[in-house]
Amino acid sequence: SVAESEEEGEKGEKKGKRKKRNKKKRKVKDNDSESKEDVADDNVEDMQDDIENMEQDNKEEVKLGEDELYAWLELRLHPLLIKAMHRLGFNEPTPIQKACIPAGAHQGKDVIGAAETGSGKTLAFGLPILQRLLEEREKTTRLHVEDEKAAEGSSTGGPLRALILTPTRELAKQVCDHLKEAAKFLGIHVVPIVGGLSMEKQERLLKKKPEIVVGTPGRLWELMSSGNQHLVELHSLSFFVLDEADRMIERGHFKEVQSIIEMLPLSNSSDEQTVKATSSCETVANLQIKKRQTFVFSATLALSANFRKKLKRGLSTSKTATADDLSSIEALSKQAGMKPNAEIVDLTNASILPEKLEESFIECSDDDKDANLYYILSVHGQGRTIVFCTSISALRHISSLLRTLGINVLTNHAQMQQRARMKAVDRFREGENSVLVATDGFARGMDFDNVRTVIHYQLPHSSDVYIHRSGRTARKSLTGCSIALISPADKAKFYSLCKSFSKV
């Protein structure tokens, strides 16, 4: 084509220039009488060559992105974020990301989102956060506000801009890892703050002033109540995220979450109040921070019909107002100051189970459960497998038995030290055919590639837990299998479970 021939012509012309420069350099070497100024000119020309090569590489990369990442381009994301998605192998956004990113990144709306597990909820709130931070940084540069400080911002961090709460340590680490990967070359720092690890080490991390903190309510509140400067100075906080919000209540974190919310500045405070509050503190390069955005995400969503009206009433009342008639998500959303025009995205279906999940069960006596479990792992053990128990004693029994029978299993339960739990998670991710025996605390939010099978050695106590257990497989539109071992004592519970999913 004409465009291609022109492009080839440009390349040839640049090559010709480079050859001339190289000849000139050889002459300088051969002739000592040549001036040093000529050598300096050559160095400048070499630098121009390098710049030209980089520009050519960037042009080719942009062309590749336009072809392969059209769906991301439609969301009007920053080019650096689109490049990050390409690097991570995400060729198109998931449905929850398509629904949430425009509202969160471009309209500045609060978002309540619900979708099945493995649907990409982390980037549904993570990308809008990174988008706005990049836009604000560029605006700062354009306005030439505190030039040197703005230039150093990417390496030294700054005030806290986003606070993300998750119910478990493992989920906090996972969310943190996802965001770190997306922000790898953006100069935006993300750190995890969770219990079970050295508080001194986490305080050192906070001294570096990361823009984004992902943590569990217990440890975050512990550091906030002790007066940690980075977590207490929230005048520049632009994003507050509750991930797996309903789980936050189930795990008894409501009081801690409520205490953290009470520390947040009022998002509708006047400019005068903001100036007074921040006069002695570091601010984001004199840019006016937009009102705080709130993101609330979960795998399930049950909002009352007049939820928006309740949010309107909530804005005129105290953040600590009780909400006896609200569900857990509604209570937390209202207390966090969510605005009435919030975008509500509910992509859950009636069953909430992954679309490509194949469910089956094996009826057997309690004594035969071990033999059936061993058979499944031995014969159908391709891909990663998670075995769920309701009790730690059952977990210890089957993990000991399976190791004796030559199956190297990993374990994860609440009584293990945090380092051991995180090590087990990492080892499970590394092995293509790993087997993990876990209790129900592990069933929520954890995202693993290629979990082929989930086995319910003991039935869960509720349909909600069954959903989250089974949701560890068949993620990201892949196939997966969920197998329940049913003893005579389990039959009534199993019937009730099937009834809740309209399977009987």
TrEMBL record:
Gene3D superfamilies: P-loop containing nucleotide triphosphate hydrolases (3.40.50.300). It comes from the Eukaryota. Residues 70-98 form the DEAD-box RNA helicase Q domain. GO terms for molecular function: ATP binding; hydrolase activity; nucleic acid binding; RNA helicase activity. CDD domains: DEADc_DDX24, SF2_C_DEAD. Residues 356-504 form the Helicase C-terminal domain. Residues 1-10 have a biased composition (Acidic residues). One of its GO terms (cellular component) is cytosol. InterPro entries: DEAD/DEAH_box_helicase_dom, DEAD_box_RNA_helicase, Helicase_ATP-bd, Helicase_C-like, P-loop_NTPase, RNA-helicase_DEAD-box_CS, RNA_helicase_DEAD_Q_motif. PROSITE patterns: DEAD_ATP_HELICASE, HELICASE_ATP_BIND_1, HELICASE_CTER, Q_MOTIF. Residues 102-319 form the Helicase ATP-binding domain. Pfam families: DEAD, Helicase_C. Keywords: ATP-binding, Helicase, Hydrolase, Nucleotide-binding. It comes from Aegilops tauschii subsp. strangulata (Goatgrass). This is RNA helicase. Residues 14-28 have a biased composition (Basic residues). Belongs to the DEAD box helicase family. A motif (Q motif) lies at residues 70-98. Residues 1-47 are annotated as: Disordered. Residues 29-38 have a biased composition (Basic and acidic residues).
